[in-house]
């Protein structure tokens, strides 16, 4: 295989591997981000909860 073609093949393979690793890390981190921070805060803001009410909203939304 000519050196130029070999360099192109390895470069494309490296970019493909890097993009797969990035997509896998995003896929693993996304569900935790969705269920933990954003939905709980949004639910607490919707009901305007404070104190004991806030704890109840947070516990209810974490169980769902």
From TrEMBL:
InterPro entries listed in its UniProt record: Clarin
Record membrane topology: Multi-pass membrane protein
Keywords, alphabetical: Membrane, Transmembrane, Transmembrane helix
Places the protein is found: Membrane
UniProt family annotation: Belongs to the clarin family.
The name this protein goes by in its record: Clarin-1
């Amino acid at each position: 295989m000519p050196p130029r073609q070999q360099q192109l093949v390895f470069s494309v393979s490296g970019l493909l591997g890097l993009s797969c690793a990035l997509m896998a890390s995003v896929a693993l981190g996304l569900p935790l981000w969705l269920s933990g921070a954003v939905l709980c805060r949004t639910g607490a803001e919707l009901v305007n909860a404070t104190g004991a009410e806030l704890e109840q909203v947070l516990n209810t939304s974490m169980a769902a």
